[in-house]
Structure formats: C-alpha cells, structure tokens
Design goal:
five-stranded antiparallel sheet; 321 residues; eight-stranded mixed sheet; Rossmann fold; alpha/beta; single chain; 9 helices
C-alpha cells in the first residue's frame, strides 16, 4: 500500500526527488522471503528498491544461471532446420507463415528482441552485457554472427560459449572498444546506477550504433493482477522497474533517444506469478510442473494480445543518438 510519506532522494531514472513507498516485495525466486520496500517516482512512475542490500551477491546463487535463454530442442536434422527457419524469422522476418508458426510454438523472446534492432546485420559488432554464460551469444553465432562479446561480473571466469565468442568476467565500465550494438537482455534492471551505466554504454557505441534494453516495464496487466507477487518484480535483484517515461528521461540524460519500443512478454508473466501466489519458489520451475499445456498456451496467447495493446510486462527499448 502506498504511504503518504515522500522520500526525498533522486529517482535513478528521471532524477525527480519526490517518491513514495509503493509496496513491499519479498524474495520469492529461491524462497528466501526477505522483504524489500520499493518506492514509486511521483514524476515518471518507475519503481526502485528503497535500499540496495549490502549482501546482494547472496541473492545470486549458482542456480540463478539455470534460467538460460529459452530455445527449441534441436536433435536431428529436421529440428535443426526448423530452428534455423524460426531464428531467421525472429531476426530478419524471413520464413513467412511457417516461420511465424514456429515462433509461436517455440518462443525465444531474447532472440526476437534482437530482431527489433534497425538494420540488423551479421557483421555487426555486438556486446551483450549481463549475458550470463552466453547462451544468446551462442545462438547468434549459430546464425552467422561473428563479432560477438559478452560481459558479466557474476560468471565464475572468462568463458567461450562458441568458437571465437568471448564472455568476459567484467563490469561494463571496465570495457573498451566500439560496438555497433550494445544490449542488455533482462540485465539492465540489475545495475545499481542505470544513469551512469547508460552514459558509459554511450561511450562504447560506434558511429550509428544502437543500444537494446530488454526490461520489465510498467504499467502492465500482470502487475495490476498480481501486485507484489508479479514475477518480474524479482526483489531484490531487480533494483528498478521503469516506465516508458522513465526510460525516455534516462536515455536523454545519456545523450540518446528511444527510437523504438516493442512489448514482448510471454506466458511467463502469468505462470511465474501464479507460482508466487502459491508461495512456491521459481528456481526449478518450468510452468509444466503445475499447469497444463492448454493453460500455458492460453497464457501465451493472452500475453501476445497484451503486447499488441502495449500492456505486456516486458519490453525491448532501442536507443540511438
């Protein structure tokens, strides 16, 4: 419940100083139960954790990386061909009705998000920040992209998820070089200072470069339905959840502008939240553990309908100078 007490500390997205306590969110992914108050910005409407825990790394246990990018099985040449058709459809809009059917049957929202970038080409220099073990980079490599680098301070060491693909155990401010595309796939909301981070990212952009931020976004139908049990609040790992207005202000502060926004929620907005309604941890859940294939398909259709109306709980923001 919102309190009447304003909190005089600048919003991490728009810089406004007046905020109010909106709700308290418990850590639920691993069933730890720690409570964390979140503040709502009175100007842009974004949410932000009131205090970042000093032991934040405790909330990133090894099992956290089991949430890799979703993909379709690829055993056998027929399935490999179908996956290639689906991926070409996601990235470049090729494949017609068959590609569209495959994308509906085997959603891959992270790859679909990359396809939102204007002028996407296989020769782009791509940096994926907060990439985990680099599963998305490996998928892009399999589709012909060759200039791929990842950075994530929480991986155990530097990795090579595919030949020539580097994942560096580093923070973004430790990087140098130029990239045509810098992307954060559901990782930007984990950074403690998004304004400083985005300014650093702008320095890394080559002329004509773009930034892709796939993040939970407000307002959305899942938050309206589930409140503090909305799965994408993910306290305390999600340090903020932006609105479109908050992202616009953030981009301008880094000398960038939002050029495109695409809502791209999946059925996870529902089945993940339903786990939390039942007080069940999510770390080992698949959706199929509780719900029928028909229910999951119904939620997937509902999510797509909400996306078209701009009310899905995830969105891809493309930024450029």
């Amino acid at each position: 419940m919102t309190t009447a007490v304003a909190v005089q500390r600048a919003c991490c997205l728009c810089g406004a100083t007046s905020r109010v306590e909106k709700l308290t969110v418990r850590e639920r992914m691993f069933g730890l139960g720690d409570p964390f108050p979140y503040l709502e910005c009175a100007e842009c409407g974004s949410l932000e954790i009131a205090t970042v825990p000093v032991d934040l790394e405790r909330f990133y246990p090894e099992g956290y990386y089991s949430f890799g990018a979703e993909d379709m099985p690829a055993r056998g040449w027929v399935k490999r061909l179908l996956r290639r058709l689906r991926d070409r459809y996601l990235l470049f809009g090729e494949g017609g009705a068959l590609g569209a059917w495959l994308e509906r049957r085997f959603p891959y929202p992270e790859l679909r998000s990359v396809g939102v970038v204007a002028g996407l080409r296989e020769d782009m220099r791509i940096l994926d920040v907060g990439c985990g073990r680099g599963l998305l980079l490996a998928a892009l490599h399999a589709r012909g992209f060759r200039h791929l680098t990842g950075a994530d301070p929480f991986v155990p060491a530097d990795l090579e998820p595919a030949p020539g693909v580097r994942v560096l155990k580093r923070h973004v401010h430790e990087l140098q070089g130029e990239w045509d595309l810098v992307m954060f796939q559901a990782s930007f909301e984990h950074v403690p200072d998004p304004a400083l981070t985005l300014r650093q990212v702008a320095v890394l952009l080559a002329p004509g470069g773009q930034v892709l931020l796939r993040v939970p976004v407000l307002p959305n139908a899942a938050f309206e339905r589930y409140g503090e049990r909305w799965v994408a609040l993910d306290a305390p790992r999600h340090l903020f959840v932006p609105t479109r207005a908050g992202m616009d202000r953030l981009a301008r502060g880094a000398g960038l502008r939002v050029t495109r926004v695409e809502n791209d929620a999946t059925a996870f907005m529902f089945w993940g939240s339903e786990h939390y309604v039942r007080d069940l941890p999510l770390a080992s859940a698949t959706g199929e553990d509780l719900f029928s294939a028909r229910q999951l398909a119904d939620w997937e259709r509902e999510a797509r309908t909400l996306n078209r109306a701009g009310r899905g709980d995830m969105a891809s923001f493309v930024l450029a100078r």
